């Protein structure tokens, strides 16, 4: 992972921090064992390039991105996984906006001021609006990983 990708991923993780995003982490222990575990993101430090996540055991572990062996991949939903209920909610909240599942983008048909609140809605629902999954910087969330309203 190049530095620009790390920075993009850390910025994205930071935006998702308060929404309970699940992550897959891999790192080397001091004994040389490779650890691979899922958990929930609890903190992001963009300046030091590290994250903390709550492991399934309840233990909080730091994964430094500035080391070669640390990997953190969030579980995100592709826009193609949006439910009819979510799509109806989105279009009711953001008049003139629609989600193009096949093009993986949000379309705005109205002119004038943009309502950027739709970005928060996408983050809250754990959608990959930055295209991290195709870049290999995120994993596609298994169905029902996140409760769908």
The end-to-end span amounts to 34 Å
Helical residue percent? 10-25%
Coarse structural class: alpha+beta
As residue ranges, the low-confidence spans are none
**N-to-C series of helices and strands:** HEEEEEHEEHHE
Q: Let me know the number of strands.
A: 8
User: Globular, elongated, flat, extended or rod-shaped: what is the shape?
Assistant: elongated
Oligomeric state: single chain
> What characterizes the major β-sheet?
6 strands, mixed
CATH topology of the largest domain: SH3 type barrels
Strands of the widest sheet, in order across it, are 4-3-2-1-5-8
Rounded mean pLDDT is 86
Rg of Cα set: 17 Å
Count of individual helical segments: 4
Strand content: 25-35%
Annotated CATH architecture of the largest domain: Roll
CATH class of the largest domain: Mainly Beta
Domain module tally: 2
How does this structure look, described?
It is a single chain. The protein is α+β, with helices and mostly antiparallel strands. The chain folds into two domains: 74 residues, Roll (SH3 type barrels); 47 residues, no CATH class. A six-stranded mixed β-sheet has the order 4-3-2-1-5-8. Strands 6-7 form a two-stranded antiparallel sheet. The protein is elongated and about 55 Å long. The protein starts with a helix and ends in a 9-residue tail after the last strand. The mean pLDDT is 86.
């Amino acid at each position: 992972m190049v530095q620009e990708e790390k920075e993009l991923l850390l910025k994205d993780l930071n935006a998702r921090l308060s929404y309970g995003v699940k992550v897959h982490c891999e790192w080397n222990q001091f004994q040389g064992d490779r650890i691979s575990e899922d958990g929930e993101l609890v903190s992001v430090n963009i300046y030091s390039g590290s994250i903390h996540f709550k492991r399934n055991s309840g233990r909080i572990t730091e994964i430094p991105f500035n080391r070669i062996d640390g990997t953190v991949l969030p579980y995100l939903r592709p826009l193609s996984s949006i439910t009819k209920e979510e799509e109806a909610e989105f279009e009711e909240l953001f008049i003139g906006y629609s989600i193009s599942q096949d093009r993986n983008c949000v379309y705005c048909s109205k002119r004038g001021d943009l309502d950027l609140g739709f970005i928060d809605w996408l983050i809250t629902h754990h959608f990959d609006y930055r295209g991290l999954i195709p870049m290999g910087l995120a994993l596609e969330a298994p169905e029902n990983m996140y409760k769908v309203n």
